[in-house]
Known about the structure:
Layout: E1 4-9, H1 13-22, E2 28-34, H2 39-49, E3 55-56, H3 60-64, E4 69-72, H4 79-91, E5 98-102, H5 109-121, E6 125-129, H6 136-152, E7 157-163, H7 170-173, H8 175-178, H9 182-198, E8 209-218, H10 225-235, E9 247-255, E10 262-270, E11 279-286, E12 289-294, E13 300-304, H11 306-309, E14 327-331, H12 335-338, H13 341-353, H14 362-381, E15 385-386, H15 390-397, H16 409-412
Parallel strand pairs: 1-2, 1-4, 2-3, 4-5, 5-6, 7-10
Antiparallel strand pairs: 7-11, 8-9, 8-15, 9-10, 11-12, 13-14
Helix pairs in contact: 1-2, 1-13, 4-5, 5-14, 9-14
The structure holds nicotinamide-adenine-dinucleotide.
Amino acid sequence: METLKLGFIGAGFIAKFQVRAMTQLNNAEIAGVYAKEWSDDFQKYALHHGVGECKVYNSIKELCNNCDAVAIYVPNYARIEVMEEIVDAVKAGAGLKGVICDKPLARTVAEAQRLVDLADEVHLNTSYHENQIHMKSIQNALIQLEPVQRTMGPIALARSSEEHSGPHEPWFWDPTRQGGGVLADMGCHSIAVSQYVLTPIGKPVSFLEPVSVSCDISLLKWGKPDFRKKLMDKMGVDYNKMPAEDFCTGVITFRNPDTGQIVKGQFSNSWMYDKLGLRLLMEGLGPGYTFEVNSLRSSLEVFIADEAAESVSNAEAALEKATATRGLMTIQPNEADLYGYVDETRDTARAFMNNKKALLDWEFGLEVTKMVQAGYMAAERKKTIDLTDPDVQKVLKNFQSLVAQGRGSEILFG
Ligand SMILES: NC(=O)c1ccc[n+]([C@@H]2O[C@H](COP(=O)([O-])OP(=O)(O)OC[C@H]3O[C@@H](n4cnc5c(N)ncnc54)[C@H](O)[C@@H]3O)[C@@H](O)[C@H]2O)c1
């Protein structure tokens, strides 16, 4: 089978998770990597997992000249500079079939629009990697419910939540570099997956019209003096001066343009979930039917007593963001598949090899960015934002939240 030869830009957490996904794929391989740091370690990891030649390159241009498509797995603040270099490489003759960008597409609507425009400038196919939409549990829920959806009507209320105890690298905690707090980082997942499951069967992913957004953001755990100190010591960020939200919740209202039906997506995210590790919870409620996904349910549980715990060195071997090495633990044997990483890259490889956009393209990522930013606007204004108002759309184009400006204290300490 022909494989898509991918070039990875970035060699950190998500790049390594994608390696684990690619061991389960037969239509993609890693041709090379370019990253500011950790390329050599990443190459070893990729070779160990047998997912391609994974040559280390010293520039984006060189990488682009030696692969079929590139994947942007760098921090949010580096998206634009990286994409500009990709575009320069294509203009200089690199024959890329497409470009992937992981969530969130960007820190602001203006940055997201810039990325879309850059890809358009050189006619590159795009893929927005929102893994949760590709989760087998989500896809199977929709397949199972297709007949009842057709007879009873579409899902009318979606609930989606992603929570863990906090990110792994300092830049995630710095709202100016990341683009906000947990709403920017994980709200984008929950909003996107809600919109997706609310979309009537057979309609495109951007079919529903976002009508309004309400949202609350708060700093509930990491603003407390002892946790602020921990953050300062471990991550070098000062939440006394420049805080970001560790909790967000809100509702997005969508309208079906064919029938006028109103449906709602409720999202809830936190960096203060001190339980077994990362938890994804999704629900879809339709007339006469429901689905529920809980990523912490597994057929495998392990118990480790205190006296045996010293021999366990890596809590995350059990589950992403796990913080404990003893007691009753949930183990997910195949997280890369569970979270949708396998299927998102399979979809992208199939699309790019057929010269097409993937299921989720950057236009979709731009729409998600708009809803996330409208969430910040709603939280700042303490009112529901009307997305059908042309003035709101105009303001959103250049909106940057107080949190992302480093002025989070004005809203989170009020
Ligand atoms: N889908 C998910 O659930 C998920 C999970 C984690 C991260 N992510 C996303 O993936 C992206 C990367 O996150 P991460 O956790 O892997 O970060 P990370 O900090 O672990 O790794 C970042 C990598 O990018 C490199 N890098 C930084 N600036 C660069 C530049 N200008 N040019 C080239 N390389 C550069 C770093 O050297 C490092 O190798 C983020 O946008 C994040 O939101 C998505």
